Amino acid sequence: MDRTSRAGGRGRRRAVVLLRVGAAALAVALLLGLGSALAFGQSQLRTNLVQRFQLRGTVAARFLASYSAGLLAQERLAAGRWLSGSPPSIPNFVELTQDLGFQAAVLLDGQGRALAVYPSKPSLIGTKLSSQYAHLRRAVAGHPTISNVVPSAAKGIPVVAFAVPFAAPGGERVYSGALAVSSSTLGAYLHSLISIPGTEVFLQDSTDRTIASSLRAPPAPDLLARTNPQLHGALAHGEDGTYAAPAGPQYFVSQPVKGTPWKLVLAVPESVLFAPIGASEVWVSWASFGGLVVLSVTVVVVLMRLAAARRAQVQYRDELISHVSHELRTPLAAIHQFTSILLDGIGGPLTEEQRRYLGISLRNTEQLNRMVTDLVDSARGANALRVEPAALDLVPLLRTVVSGFRERAAQEGVDLTVDLQPNLPLVFADGHRVNQIVANLVDNAIKFSRAGGRVEVGCRADAEGWVTVDVSDTGIGLPPGPEAQVFERLFQGDVEAGRGRGLGLGLHLCKVLVERQGGTIRAERRSPGSRFSFTLPIAGFDRYHPAVDGGVPRRVATS
Question: How many domains is the chain partitioned into structurally?
Answer without folding.
Answer: 2
